[in-house]
Amino acid sequence: MTPNAASSSGPSRRSFLTSTAVATAAVAVGTPLLAACGGGGQEGRKEGTTSGKEAAKILPAYVASSVVTPDIPAKNGSAAGFTRAIPTAELKTSVPKTLGSGGKLTVMSPFWGTPPKGDNPYYTAMNKAVGVDVTWQNQDGVTYDQKLGAVLASSEVPDVVVVPGWNLMGRIPSAINAKFADLGPYLSGDKVKDYPNLAAVPTEAWQRGIFGGQLRGIPMPAPYVTDIAPLYRKDLFAKKGYTVPGSPDEFLAWAKEATDAKSKLWACDDMKWTAFNIFGVLSGGDKALWWNLEGGKLVNRIETEQFLEALEWTRKLYAAGVVHPDAVQGKAGGDAGNRFTAGEVLVYNQNISDWWGKTAEQRTQNADFEMEAFDYFGPDGGDPTLWAVQPANIFTFVSKKASEQQIKDFLALCNFCAAPYGTKEFMLTAYGVEGTDYTFEKGLPVKTQQGVNEVNGAYDYTGNPAPYIAYPDLPEVTKGMVEWQQRMGAFTKKSSFFGLTVTEPARWSNLADDFEQLEDDVVRGRKKISDVQQAVSDWRSRGGDGLRDWYRKLLDDNGSAD
């Protein structure tokens, strides 16, 4: 990891840990509306999911990579950890020969910032190494949902298209089934061994790449441990003599003590995401994960007592005046991190990658700055019950119109980009050309300004290795993040639809869209818990019970993925 990589504003292979909530906050995506989808045959309209024996016929064989050994092995669903930079002379080779044919591919991908020119040294070097002439159609990440909907509704689809999981709404899943190729003939079973780096992608991530009954998507793997962490100012806790609270009641009592509004200091920012984990609410990132089979009945997260308890506890924080006033006004997301580094709040929740991002950002500004993530506790202060998030949430597809050679070139590109940390291929993909895009300073690879501008996005999405965390500039943060994931992973359960990509019937796909706003209104005191209960009753009558029956049949017919 390079300190200056913190300037990247969009998800990347090094900062993105597959959080729909974080992506929504950081990118401010809207709801994509796909007016029409060409090729609307039965395949394009396929609903449901594929698991069990049918999935086993489709999924690639798993062959763990042995090219590089991590400093901290993955455990309990965590990422693996690499704490040191690998000198150029020690880099391994994971792609011994060029697999691309020299053909051309056009790739449409989201990009945050100003896209680089197409003939830059980084793109040129990647094209040569992979053996594929890639032309990037980088689109504004903020409005990518709109562009994606328009492109998939047209007859002119690029050779390769990146689709973030948070854009899998409306008719886009059906368009994916209609417009993109089946990769099974090239990757299923032992066929994937022609692409060793792709063979090392965990099976649960590949399961997410099944759309419309076929293996269509190259997934970006991620840890399944919750990616939302309660982050706290360890330096300020030590200065004030605070210990980390160990229960919801302790947290509220501490928050009241720590808040000093006259000095512009508040205990916390909005803690709703943390509350959901403390009280054992089913994962909220993917609507399929909202459902779980409990006592023989399929239950949705919004129907549970845990959901109401989490909202009520968060409401108490707001009512006690311990939440920063900007959060009270609804100014959450990235601003929360700024309030945290400014010392205006002592605790906030965000994607765990912020642990490195904020530390790297502050290390040159505040030598005393120190932050960590505290462990989740349960409602009574005991062990928490946490729910797994999806093991992949960004996918890359190749067009049905692509030739066989183009598909093979696409897979050659993905295999190269999925090279593990510590390889020559990884360094080129992640850092660019040595001496141009980055140099070594005190043994660490540090991007030049050209590298910051050009090696950003794009190839992040066309293949990734098994989940890893590698911040050699801050090895203690790498260790802390991985060990936090391992500890939390020990309390993590997989719900009934974990690892499955489910296409809901269109008539029910927007049933729960208003609940997030309702949650925010309740915790801020604008609505009551009874309003949530009424909304749940309305949800059931408007189709929630029908959707439950549909999910139950899906589970009975296909089984779970785990």
From TrEMBL:
Domain of life: Bacteria
Subcellular location: Cell envelope
PROSITE patterns: TAT
Signal peptide: 1-35
Keyword Transmembrane helix: no
Keywords linked to the UniProt accession: Signal, Transport
Name of a matching Pfam family: SBP_bac_8
Protein family (similarity comment): Belongs to the bacterial solute-binding protein 1 family.
Protein name: Extracellular solute-binding protein
Organism (species): Streptomyces prasinosporus
Lineage: Bacteria, Bacillati, Actinomycetota, Actinomycetes, Kitasatosporales
